[in-house]
Amino acid sequence: MARVSRRDNPFALMVLVWLGVVLYSGFQVAGIWTEIGVITALIGALVLGLRWLESHNRTTWVRYLFSFFVALLSTALYYLVKPAMPHVEFLYTLAILFVSARWGLVAGLVTAFFSTVGNWGVNFFTDPASVSEAMMQGIFFVASACVMGWIADSREKALTAQIQMTSHLEQTYQSTLSALASALDARDRETAGHSARVTALAVKIAQEMKMDDSQLCFIRWGALIHDIGKIGVADAILRKPGSLNEAEWAEMRRHPEIGYAMLKTIPFLRLSLDVVRHHHERYDGKGYPLGLAGETIPLAARIFSVADTYDAMTSDRPYRKARSRAEALAEIRQLAGTQFDPHVVGVFLALLTKSSQSIGVLKSSHSADDLVDAR
Description:
- The protein has 16 helices and no strands.
- Helix 13 (299-313) packs antiparallel against helix 14.
- The chain folds into 2 domains: 13-162, no CATH class; 188-372, Hypothetical protein af1432, CATH 1.10.3210.
- By secondary structure, the protein is mostly helical.
- It has helices at residues 13-30, 34-55, 60-81, 90-103, 105-126, 131-187, 194-208, 213-224, 235-238, 246-252, 255-263, 273-278, 299-313, 325-334, 342-354, 368-372.
């Protein structure tokens, strides 16, 4: 599932940087409010630096180095702007609050220390009488870092606890669904291991299609329990060694809707139900249970359909022997655009070509007959 952090920003930081540059340039050209332009430029520099460090996953010591340069920049601006603007010491506070909110208490205190030294140094050389005042301001800098850093660290701890709890829940869901899939496979020895194999392959196809972690999770869960509706199908039909008659087919074709009805009230499986309900739909609209066609079939179901058929064709079933890997691939390639989404088939074939070792859990040896008689 997708992770969250206080460092994930919903707004475009680069926009702020460019806004600062434009405003500063405008103030300089107009010859007015230069101090405001300088402050805006400082904000832009802070935002740009923070963004770069986070995007490159810089180490802690680099962050502290950044804190030093933030304080140095504040000192330089303070020296330039102080004659024209009273109480400009808030430039330091601005820098301290930025760093503390972003990286917590320790980084904020480091910035406060450097800011205090810089503030004291400027006053020592330009206005010795105000050195004691500068030291009092240093206490305020440290207090600002403590308050903002404590708030940031507390929020980070809360988010970390939430992430850990979510991860634990995901693992619990995964274990529960895996156990359920094993129980379903145990009902029919001929399909033992099918759920695990087809889940692994469907997830690999989805990864090749650049689906995000949350989508992969829902596909994985849906794949594990895709045939749960077969609980409502009689063993005599499920294990019949020959072809099914019309009445038996009508019963078999009910299993996607049975599975959907069983699971639709479970909130965490809501998005996984696309696989459970639609894995027997066909790209040309001739599938079941709803007869969906093309991209009206959920992508997760289109992906799973290819993986499911490949594993079915390369596995022994009560009504026929397994086909070779080459035969299965040729069959799937031929049915791209009719039974399967051509794009998904292309990704699948490229994946198998790239992974000649049968993609981990897949067998090396799964017909058009199966595509009609798929159960």
